[in-house]
Amino acid sequence: MKPYFSFQWHITDECDQRCKHCYIFAENTQKCPDHMSREQMTAVLDNCLDFCENYGRQPYFYLTGGDPILHPDFWTLLAMFKEKEIPFTIMGNPFHLTEDVCRRMKECGCVRYQMSIDGMEKTHDWFRKPGSFHTTLEKVGMLNAAGIRSIIMTTVSGKNIDEVPHIIDAVVAAGTKVYAFARYCPTSDEAGAKMAHPAPAPALGHPCPSRENSISPERYHKLLEDCDNIFRKYEAAGCETYFNRKDHLWTLLDYEKGRFQIPADAEPEMIYGGCNCGNGHLTILPTGEVFACRRVQNSRVGNVFTDRLAKLWTGRMEDYREYDKFQKCSKCKLLAWCRGCPAVASSTSGGNFYAADPQCWAEQIDGLLAV
């Protein structure tokens, strides 16, 4: 069976929310939302299939936006996926999900549907919009009943990190099939200011109160340890939620705990895991712009309307595979399995993809970093 290659495909910027940590509207709340035409989506699909044919891969799409359901040709695109038997995940909002919509998505081949919970009710609704917290949890059961695996994702920042254990309890109680979290990537100083603490909520029309958004390595290490304990207790109790340890710093924690060992037969120049940027993933925006990773703001490598993706992969994408350039990871024994999150490193270092992950604590582990 051919290995999968994932395309994160943003077909529209249209959305019912204006989240304070959104990449699309973080720096321009008056932005006119972009979206692809039906003809453009057909061309993009052909380009992606050409890529997979060229490299012997199977396509897997993460369809998103904005909220992809709001695209006028959403169902037309899903019919294309169904015709070509292409599996896909949708990353969207809960607001337009009905039993009929979920049934139709499942019939078209939707495997998973990802929504977000970014805090308990007060915090989450401040980030997104009033009522979003309860609506999101309510739709979990509807997705499950349709045979679509429900996913809840949390964007962790200094503003909600203390609430993550409570979020885990809430999503498990709702019957969520998969839970994961990733760290917030600031898009600019302005975007960072918007991530201010939600209590008390700012008055309408007033700027958000400012507060430092950074998370220390020690605090993030504690979060992973706390969550690891929670996950293991739920798993031992037979919980049906799968806890996706998505952040690559989980590998660092597993190494520290003795649960991960570097294989004796590992080849020095091989990359076995870790960050997928440059390895098995591309992002396509509604404008056609192609990014190595959507979370790496300066990672544009071309345009899907004018460039052949198969050519980009061995062209500008090479800039993201120079592993000896990682300032810290290149000195680490876990280089081939971790590399932290270059998106977080880039967004906190002024745009340097190869900068040190600000939450990595590898130097605190004896013998892990080369002197």
From TrEMBL:
Protein known as: Radical SAM/SPASM domain protein, ACGX system
Q: One MF term in GO for this entry?
A: catalytic activity
Q: Which PANTHER family does the UniProt record give?
A: PQQA PEPTIDE CYCLASE, RADICAL SAM DOMAIN PROTEIN
- Say yes or no: keyword Cell membrane present: no
Q: Which residues are in the Radical SAM core domain?
A: 1-216
**InterPro entries, sorted:** 4Fe4S-binding_SPASM_dom, Aldolase_TIM, Elp3/MiaA/NifB-like_rSAM, PqqE-like, Radical_SAM_PqqE_MftC-like, rSAM, rSAM_ACGX, rSAM_sf
Q: Which cofactor does it need?
A: [4Fe-4S] cluster
Q: Per its UniProt entry, which superkingdom is the organism in? A: Bacteria
State whether keyword Transcription regulation applies: no
- Signal sequence bounds: none
